[in-house]
Amino acid sequence: VLKGHSDVVCSVAVQGDTIVSGSRDKTVRIWNATSGEEQHVLKGHSDRVYSVAIQGDTIISGSDDKTVRIWNATSGEEQHVLEGHSDAVCSVAVQGDIIVSGSEDKTVRIWNATSGEEQHVLKGHSDLVSSVVIQGDTIVSGSYDRTVRIWNATSGEVQHVLK
To answer: Where are the WD repeats (predicted)?
Structure first.
């Protein structure tokens, strides 16, 4: 049992021996899965952390504070604050140099993980975007509008709407 958060844990991610958790207590925590030790408490969000993702030495978090944050998993240091969403960030995903975020503002956003620059704003959902994933050149988003949308990660164009 990994104890440390003072409120509901909304999201977890795992990579090898590393577990990342995001909570309503506004923190992201990094744990060693083998020892159960808390390695870092990442503070920076001003509201609930709804989603976390990890890839290599990079942790991504999305929050009710409308931001996506990029952290160094080893040092625990914040590297970028990605601003652009006008409402809570519900879901984040990362692949290579691409970060994807889905928000209550009904958009999916594509960001460059190195620079923190926004690449595309994907519009089409008519309600909050609750889940995003990226695989290869494809982004898939799920929404409270009861649809799944498939997008091209490079162009930002919608390819299919699954109803």
So the answer is: 2-41, 42-81, 82-121, 122-161
Regarding whether 116 and 62 lie in a shared domain, the answer is: no
Q: What angle do CA 75, 81, 82 make, to 5 degrees?
A: 135
Domain encompassing residue 4: 1-83
The residue assigned the tokens 């509008």 is: 145
Side by side, which strands form the sheet with 118-122?
89-95, 98-103, 108-112, 118-122
- Last residue of a domain, which of 83, 105, 126? 83
Q: Is the pLDDT of residue 63 over 90?
A: yes
> Bridge partners of 69?
61, 81
Asked if the structure places residue 28 within a domain, the reply is yes
- 1 pLDDT higher than 90: no
How far apart CA 15 and CA 134 sit, in angstroms, is 17
What are 117's two structure tokens? 């620059």
* Residues 80-122 pLDDT 10s: 999 999 999 999 999 999 999 999 999 999 999 999 999 999 9
Handedness of CA 107, 102, 133, 62 (dihedral sign): positive
Six-digit token string for 15: 């990579």
